[in-house]
Amino acid sequence: MSAADWRARRAPSLEEFDALARAAFDALPEAFRRLCGNVVLHVADFAEEEVLNEMGIDDPFELTGLYEGVDLLEKSVSDPAATPDHVHLYRRPLLEEWIENGQITLGELITHVLVHEIGHHFGLSDAEMHAIEDSAQPG
């Protein structure tokens, strides 16, 4: 690609990034997606200051994603009805990690973080999460 081809390029907007994240979710194995049930996906530039403070994170670029809710291993049918669990993806830290890595596509990185955060919901091991990533359909 010539230098001129890059002049019109720009980082994906929040809306475009959200579309990438939803495409990554849609490419995950169907059985895994069905099990996700009511998990809600959110995309923002950075985690909110309150979240960073609660986690003891000083640099907002250190947090690429976050699972918010009670994982399935701790839920009970006797629990009162709760709000849906959420997976947060943070665009700017993900873009920074993607640039620094240089070896994977942005879609692969989004899939990795998405599976990792949802994996917390299911209490999956790293090996199980890698198997799910490997079986994701390229978007």
Automatic annotation (TrEMBL):
Keywords: Hydrolase, Metalloprotease, Protease. It comes from the Bacteria. GO terms for molecular function: metallopeptidase activity. The keyword Protease applies. The keyword Hydrolase applies. GO terms for biological process: proteolysis. Signal peptide: none annotated. This is Predicted Zn-dependent protease, minimal metalloprotease (MMP)-like domain. It comes from Amphiplicatus metriothermophilus. The lineage of its organism: Bacteria, Pseudomonadati, Pseudomonadota, Alphaproteobacteria, Parvularculales.
